[in-house]
Design goal:
This protein is α/β, with parallel strands linked by helices. The chain has 7 helices and 7 strands; from the N terminus they run αααββαββαβααββ. Helix 4 links the parallel strand 2 and strand 3.
């Protein structure tokens, strides 16, 4: 019964953009958000289009300098895209079908943060194939995701990962088996983002 209540609460957080924004700002480790933004600043090609895959409420657009207009956030959740447009009116956001990247421009970077643990093996492979299709030669995919809950340091982070609605949490080794089929793996490591342990991967076409 307790697990069901917790699961419903987690689902409510992730499905309601306004509640999720509050959750991000108040409960998620701030160093994790900072860590993701630093990855974007370090690895994204600011001279080509940057696609934020499953962008949610669009907060990663904050990592892109204001004068760069090549950021595009995409998500299947209409409410999230509506919220993103209100929060970042100068940025471009698009509602898409699951797994689609309807961008005709040359894509130099795909940002993919904290989403792959929601994708089955088949969906993960389809996403990687789509990424490879739209990226220019030398283009990069910047990925972060959870590590299994047992590897988290604090009780709160263990609970957050354990109760997450994603059913496909993978180890870095398991991810690398998929990534190497389609991309060159430049980096693949775990990192301490404050008290939160995550994994990140930098792939290139």
């Amino acid at each position: 019964m307790k697990n069901r209540v917790i699961q419903k609460a987690i689902t409510l957080i992730f499905e309601n953009p306004k509640i999720f924004k509050f959750f991000q700002e108040r409960l998620l480790p701030k160093k994790y958000t900072k860590f993701k933004k630093e990855l974007v600043k370090k690895y994204a090609d600011m001279n080509a289009y940057i696609v934020d895959f499953a962008c949610g409420i669009g907060n990663m657009s904050e990592a892109i300098p204001d004068h760069i207009d090549s950021y595009v956030g995409i998500d299947i959740n209409e409410k999230s895209i509506e919220t993103a447009k209100k929060l970042y009116p100068k940025r471009r956001f698009i509602v898409v079908e699951k797994g689609e990247i309807p961008i005709k421009e040359k894509v130099g970077t795909i940002i993919c943060f904290s989403i792959f643990h929601h994708l089955s093996n088949e969906e993960l492979e389809r996403a990687l194939i789509q990424f490879k299709k739209v990226l220019i030669s030398g283009g990069k995919v910047i990925i972060t995701d959870q590590v299994p809950w047992r590897n988290q340091k604090t009780l709160l982070n263990k609970l957050m990962v354990r109760c997450d609605i994603g059913n496909f949490c993978r180890t870095p080794e398991e991810f690398r088996e998929y990534f190497k089929r389609y991309f060159t793996i430049e980096k693949s490591e775990t990192a301490n983002a404050g008290t939160y342990i995550c994994q990140y991967h930098i792939l290139s076409k």
